[in-house]
Amino acid sequence: MRITAWGRRSAIVGCGVAAMLAITPIAMADTTTPAPPPPTTYAPITLSPQEAQQLCGQFLPKLTDRTKKLTDRINGGADVKGSVAWLKARAQAQRGKGHTAAADQLDQRAQRRADRINDLKSVQQKLDAFTAAHCKAAS
After folding, report:
1. Calpha distance 127→78 (Å, rounded)
2. Helix, strand or coil for residue 57?
3. CA 139, CA 137: separation in Å to the nearest integer?
4. Please, are residues 85 and 76 in contact by the beta-carbon 8 Å criterion?
5. Could you say which residues form the signal peptide (predicted)?
6. Which of 20, 62, 126, 138 has its C-alpha lying 20 to 30 A from 46's C-alpha?
7. pLDDT in tens for each of the 139 residues of the chain?
8. Are 134 and 64 in contact (CB under 8 A)?
């Protein structure tokens, strides 16, 4: 049995119409109100003494150490892989080879990485504040 071009077109159009008729009632039934925006302030978190002890003994030292390592890496010299000085040295080498686009990208990465120092300082201050508020009482 051979299907003509008109037959194929009719079958395609028919399937499309059937799909549209099946989807339309579903789309029209969705008249729910949008979800309210999340609150801008959050309730304070209360910790049990066991939770505070676990945070102070296990997680805070790891987070503090990680923050210090990242800060040391970013502030490192040109021989420290991943530091701002290392990225700037790579950018200078790329400029020397005539690859200005790659050098500009490396300079932008170095600038973004240097801007992370403020974020890391803020994180360290928050960790210190948490330690002062909760870890003294848990000890």
Report:
1. 29
2. helix
3. 6
4. yes
5. 1-29
6. 62
7. 566 777 777 777 776 666 666 666 655 555 567 777 766 676 777 778 888 888 888 889 999 999 999 999 999 999 999 999 999 999 999 999 999 999 999 999 999 999 999 999 999 999 998 888 878 754 4
8. no
Q: Within a 10 A sphere around the Cβ of 103, how many other Cβ atoms? A: 19
Largest CA distance in the chain: 86
Alpha carbons 45 and 38: distance in angstroms, whole number: 17
The pTM score is: 0.60
Helical segments of the chain, H only: 5-29, 49-54, 60-74, 84-96, 100-130, 136-138
- Residue 4 CB neighbour total at 10 angstroms: 8
What is the identity of the amino acid at 129? A
Distance CA(73)–CA(66), nearest Å, equals 10
